[in-house]
Amino acid sequence: MQLGNGDGNITTIYEVAELAGVSVATASRALNNTGYVSKEARSRVLEAARRLNYHINVNARSLTSGKTYTIALVLPDVTNPFFPAVARGVEDAASRKGYSVILCNTDGSPRKEADYLNMLRSRRVDGIVFTTSELPGARISSIIGDSSAVVLVDRDLDEPYDIVKTDNVKGGFLATSHLISLGHTRIAVISGPLSLTTGMERLQGYRDALGQAGIPFDESLVVEGDFRQEGGRAAMERLIEQCRGRPSAKLSAVFACNDLMAVGALTALEEHEIAVPSEVAIVGYDDIALASVTRPRLSTVAQPKYEMGVLAAEMLLRRMANPNLPRQQEVLQPMLVIRDSTLERRSRCG
Amino acid sequence: MQLGNGDGNITTIYEVAELAGVSVATASRALNNTGYVSKEARSRVLEAARRLNYHINVNARSLTSGKTYTIALVLPDVTNPFFPAVARGVEDAASRKGYSVILCNTDGSPRKEADYLNMLRSRRVDGIVFTTSELPGARISSIIGDSSAVVLVDRDLDEPYDIVKTDNVKGGFLATSHLISLGHTRIAVISGPLSLTTGMERLQGYRDALGQAGIPFDESLVVEGDFRQEGGRAAMERLIEQCRGRPSAKLSAVFACNDLMAVGALTALEEHEIAVPSEVAIVGYDDIALASVTRPRLSTVAQPKYEMGVLAAEMLLRRMANPNLPRQQEVLQPMLVIRDSTLERRSRCG
DNA sequence: CGAAGATATGTAACCGGCTACAGATAGCAA
DNA sequence: TTGCTATCTGTAGCCGGTTACATATCTTCG
Predict the structure, then answer these.
(1) Nearest residue to nucleotide D12 when comparing alpha carbons to its C1'?
(2) Tens digit of each residue's pLDDT (9 = 90 or more) over A298-311
(3) Closest-approach nucleotide to residue A23, Cα vs C1'
(4) B127, B148, B98, B97: which is closest to B316 by C-alpha?
(5) What digits encode the pLDDT tens for the residues A178-235?
(6) Contact at 8 Å (CB) between B286 and B175?
(7) Closest nt to residue A12, judged CA to C1'
(8) To which CATH superfamily is domain A13-56 assigned?
């Protein structure tokens, strides 16, 4: 039996004021430490609040303050191993400042994205950390207006929203250069969706690295994937197939534009009994947990996922505090992680 | 240039009413399809709302309705591969019914859990899907009172909260029986924290299986882990060590009470050049994505994670709709997934 | 024709906070 | 003493919705 009553009857500030023998104005001031309140009044109010197990109704407060202390995290799918770390970063940074975060999974569907944005506007969230797919910037602003701030993560848009990303061109360059430095020249790419800047940029990095090494770009070596495991596997199948038909198309290495696809590719290679890395080397992207447990362990380009989340949330809070700030953009550096799936060249193909 | 204005100036129902030439009462009725509204009035209101890009303020509404259409998902860490699928299930089921979900990572700290619960009470969330660690049920209710409904996922508490879980005893039994059926008799366990029912129950299943097979329980074969990779690795090290000192303690199989620890154990075994499964077989629990990409691929006990999330959210909505419902409890069935990390017995130890 | 019921609409109170404003008291300088 | 400032408190209106209640019109039926 404890004193602080736990009977969920919701208490209002009126009851607190009454018990403390003051007006609501004084109670409010005491609870929020604003304005003038005498020592005794304050302690009486605080005591009353404690006794009644008073919890302010933040929704009511948001009516007058115009702030909800809520932000949203809109992403394709938490189940994609890239996102949990980002989400955790966002939540950590947000809760540190007293903000709650609403989670929204869009599956990359523009329809769902639009639905969520409308819902979020109705909720008057103060800001949104957004990893969109194809929704054009103009569409976003037409929905949310300037009712809440927006920070884009891992995406780029023409619209002037703040951005946190890693240097994908650099990342693609790192991965490809690594393979080149091992002596590979016939390097295939399993790209991400080319409708996404992420997909495009990594591919650009690949081309840059090729160009710098004087290796001609061969269209037939790039297959567009979908950032998913099954897609990576299918893409690899296609490469193996095409390679078989045209021995001139041999390849000795593959750059998969994310780890999920790399794992899929690994599966395909294994099924065809093509040894990795001795026959075909492979580099992934993201450095998700999976990457370090595959056999061979996956060489990959690591992104600071958690930090991206933290930075995004912090950037968002800054923007919320000052809507007139010039556009912010934070570009983090990717890092090559060399494990067992890359090794010196020894060309061959399924 | 589009008609529907997108200038974020937030519109109120008063402005809609004014533009439509009706009172707010009529506007409200038209927008919510309640009460009597003439055809013309309704269409004038809807048109006005469209023109003004009106989005209701749900926080204001919640003031009168007492409902926020928000639930919370409180879990230790989204970054733990077990949870994203659960989270996705919760969010899918919730959003299907018009609810938003607030994400809270507690790291299993009772302190953080309490803080979040207080915050959630202030937000007047309608319900909470909770995977707690050590907070006693009484403590939970003392904080949230009956201001919101609660469903426990993957945890059990004395307090009469609704529960969604899988049959952990059965799961432990399945894993262990599988090993026994392969001829193993010296089977170690890397358990979860024994302070959690999850940890206890799986261990109980292990003991049951042993008992049924007439294999004596050997205390020295159980090491308490923490459900994390590094903990699994450390535990395996200890087993190997102890095994070395006392050849009589040889073991030929390990049941790791979750996949993360199994992966850690795998690492330790590999470092000691102990072959899996030929020298030591190993079974995990959860069937997270990692399990199917390790080499050897991990045999494990699968939990229907996504379904657990969906069921938890649906159960929560039911409870919210009817607080007087008798206590609900849903026990899902775990499923043994046999891959490459288990094989017939051939005892040996590091 | 009058009464009852269905339809339509507006006024105003209320949800739970915050705060502008005004009034009261006390301290202190002139 | 007066006047001014600093401190303290309460009344009442507002935030953006919902809704009970009152009022008004139009049918419909005995």
Answers:
(1) A25
(2) 999 999 999 999 99
(3) D10
(4) B127
(5) 999 999 999 999 999 999 899 999 999 999 999 999 999 999 999 999 999 999 999 9
(6) no
(7) C16
(8) lambda repressor-like DNA-binding domains (1.10.260.40)
Q: pLDDT tens for residues A72-131?
A: 999 999 999 999 999 999 999 999 999 999 999 999 999 999 999 999 999 999 999 999
A-B C-beta contacts closer than 8 Å: 146
Are B145 and A6 inside 8 Å of each other by CB?
A: yes
Please state which CATH class domain B168-303 belongs to: alpha beta
For an interface test with A, the pick among B12, B56, B78, B106 (most A C-beta atoms closer than 10 Å) comes out as B78
On the question of a common fold for B67-166+305-332 and B168-303, the answer reads: yes
Report the DSSP beta bridge partners of residue B293: none
The full set of domain ranges for chain A reads 13-56, 66-166+305-332, 168-302
pLDDT band at A16 (very low <50, low <70, confident <90, very high): very high
Give the pLDDT of residue B146.
Answer: 80
> What's the fold here for domain A168-302?
Rossmann fold (3.40.50)
What kind of fold does domain A66-166+305-332 have according to CATH?
A: Rossmann fold (3.40.50)
Q: Mind listing the pLDDT tens digit for each residue in B90-118?
A: 999 999 999 999 999 999 999 999 999 99
The CA–C1' separation of A342 and D24, in angstroms, is 84
Nucleotide nearest to B61 (CA to C1'): D17
Q: CA of B125 vs C1' of C17, distance in Å?
A: 17
Going by pLDDT thresholds of 50, 70 and 90, the confidence category of residue A250 is confident
